[in-house]
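Design job #97: recover the sequence.
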């Protein structure tokens, strides 16, 4: 099992598959006050940038699980590049299946950044991560939210949602964590510049792929997507959608 190839075409050169630049990821690592040797499990770990840089900067130990074999290979290569391959490991696998069969030691931190569909939304994902967590541990959830409620369903779809109901506003999201029994104890939010960086890198990767792969079965689909990608970003995603990582501790 693997993710659709379109994701890999768009993001094959991304180190972070979310609207966070390296500075925001570093800031998140700093504000959590991670102790050396802290154990972190990262579900949907992508290309492993969070665990690899935090192993380098904070001496954490980590395990990443991701459904993309391509991104998992990149994560392993990155851990070797940064000299942290003894501290972090990456597995190709499905996150829910991983949790269902997990019998090992519990973690100090359990995270899922930008893939909360694994738990049918942010709160279900918190519950999933909780199953891997030590008492008193930290959950990290990376999730989009509406900066302002979209004026129409069409605008929501333009911002890559299936409907307005896909996401909450920031106050609704923060309140929902509290009502679910968790304190929000840290938060780092993306800004429009982070979105630009994430989205625009997809356009260049897609364009290069198109030039290199004439005749590929996905060529026309990716061509049609690129025709509208930059416009959709500036018209809908950039003004409407926010993104952030929320650190939670059980009340
Ligand atoms: N957390 C990473 C990646 C976010 S992108 C980062 O911030 O860079 C979303 C990731 O979810 C992709 O790497 C994709 O391969 C992965 N993914 C999607 N469905 C998954 C599933 N069911 N189990 C595990 N990983 C999944």
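Job complete. Output follows.
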């Amino acid at each position: 099992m693997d993710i659709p190839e379109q994701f890999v075409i768009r993001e094959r050169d991304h180190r972070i598959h979310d609207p966070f630049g390296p500075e925001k990821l570093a800031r998140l690592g700093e504000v959590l006050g991670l102790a050396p040797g802290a154990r972190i499990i990262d579900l949907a770990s992508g290309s492993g940038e969070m665990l690899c840089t935090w192993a380098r900067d904070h001496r954490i130990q980590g395990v990443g699980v991701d459904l993309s074999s391509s991104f998992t290979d990149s994560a392993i290569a990155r851990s070797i590049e940064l000299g942290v391959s003894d501290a972090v490991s990456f597995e190709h696998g499905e996150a829910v299946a991983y949790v269902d069969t997990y019998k090992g030691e519990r973690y100090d931190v359990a995270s899922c950044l930008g893939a909360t569909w694994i738990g049918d939304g942010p709160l279900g994902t918190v519950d999933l991560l909780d199953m891997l967590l030590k008492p008193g541990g930290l959950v990290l959830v990376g999730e989009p939210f509406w900066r302002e409620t979209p004026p129409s369903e069409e605008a929501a779809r333009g911002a890559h949602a299936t409907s307005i109901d896909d996401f909450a506003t920031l106050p609704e999201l923060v309140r929902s964590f509290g009502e679910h029994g968790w304190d929000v104890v840290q938060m780092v939010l993306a800004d429009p510049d982070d979105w630009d960086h994430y989205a625009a890198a997809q356009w260049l990767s897609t364009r290069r792929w198109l030039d290199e792969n004439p005749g590929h079965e996905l060529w026309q689909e990716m061509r049609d997507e690129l025709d509208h990608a930059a416009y959709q970003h500036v018209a809908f995603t950039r003004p409407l959608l926010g993104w952030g990582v929320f650190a939670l501790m059980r009340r």
